[in-house]
Records
---
Amino acid sequence: MTDQTTSAGQAETDDDILNYVHGKRKQIVEGILPEVMAATTDPKNISLALQALDGMSRDALGRKRLQVEEKGANASGTAGAIIAQMLRQATGLRPFEVDVPTQRPPVELGADVPRPVLVAGETDTVAPQGNYESFTNVTRAG
């Protein structure tokens, strides 16, 4: 939000500026609308009135959109806080850690499934240590 200072030394916010512009547009529309309604032959006045009305409706829709987004953000934040609180109260600091490992039978491959051909290091659980030269030598050789 930008703050600007008026000639009286008071800070003017974006909302103040939007309200000012909205008020001026309203004055213009109220000033020329009777003339447009009385004599609709001047396309310049008709265009000016339509542009002012369009700007006013865009401002109103923009403000409504911001209000809806703000409510949605507040609701998401509240829901996240509730979920975090429930998880902390239910299981302490580690909600997804299981104390007892799940026992599962080993998977048996059928006779029609060929045995996999593993490349050296494919099933390693630790990242290999190396440098750029050793990596490029391995990739060139393969």
---
Amino acid sequence: MRSGKKKIFFLIITLLLLDLVLLIVWRRWRSLKTPQTYQIPMHNSPRFYKTLTIEDISMLSPNVYEYIRDNLEKIILYQDIDGVTKLTRDAFERGEINMFDCHTLAHMIGHHAAAWNHFNHIDLHVSDENVNFCGGGFMHGVEDGIATYERLGFREELYKFCNLVLPKAKAYGACYHGAGHAFMKKVQDPKRALAICDTLIISNHITSIACYRGVFSEYMDTLKKEGKRNVSLLVFCASLPQKLHQSCALELNGFGITPESTDSQIEQNLRDCINNEYNMDIKVACLESVSWAATDSILARQNRIIPPDFIFSLPTKLQQTYMFATASEIKKQLKNGSQKDWSSFCNSFPDKDNQISCNKYILN
């Protein structure tokens, strides 16, 4: 009797185990047959921001730039400065954001790095990649943040930061550009802001030029927002002492060129640089400024740049200014991961020597 009960018991156990095995096999079979979908962690949860990728953002928003901009503080909180910088770099390399957006985001990230007291560990973020990323936007933002908040000893923070940056700076160039932006925003007077720039200089190996250019860049943006015409900006530059003409005209910001600017608007801005009575320093610097902005605008909406026909009839100095300024911006984009067609630009110049020089400049 007992042996019979034992057999029934073991039979039941065996059948239960068999059912379990069949259930596992069936579920596995169904998982292989069912299309897999990527599940984003619950929105706004810590895990969501810790693991956030460009793929996630693309699924959540039609505008990657606006999403990163609007959620920047939360992303920094969970991914830190280097994490959000990598996210921005990935967005640029994939063509989800353009150079205008990339520089703006990099500037905002740098500003947060200073404002959130990350400055105590800023040396951890001063890598070759960050220093030269998207036109030095991160570095400009750090300086802007330090100068804006004017903590006790902010000048010493700027000096320390400058010493960290200078050995690595390639696209960035020089110190205190971001501080110039901050001074102009604070005092709303270019002459006073320029005077504050001069107070930063404590050694002969660093000049005020980059700080001046930050002041001029901020002021030119203000003038364009007020509806000032291109000629008004050139009049302002010409009204300054001659030693400041070049610095001022280099920061015309392309006369307000944006990714939405049309080819005809860009051509008119280029013509405005040279169709004036001002000296060659202003014409050359203006042409550089507009060429830089024009390059970023055109490559934000298409794959290559073809120069306007009138460029080829300019005097050699002005034609080469346009060529090398455009080539420098193309080169910057390529170094930041862009996959644009650059050779067609260089090869569009009729002069063979210009073609060779342009190609060699971009490749070196």
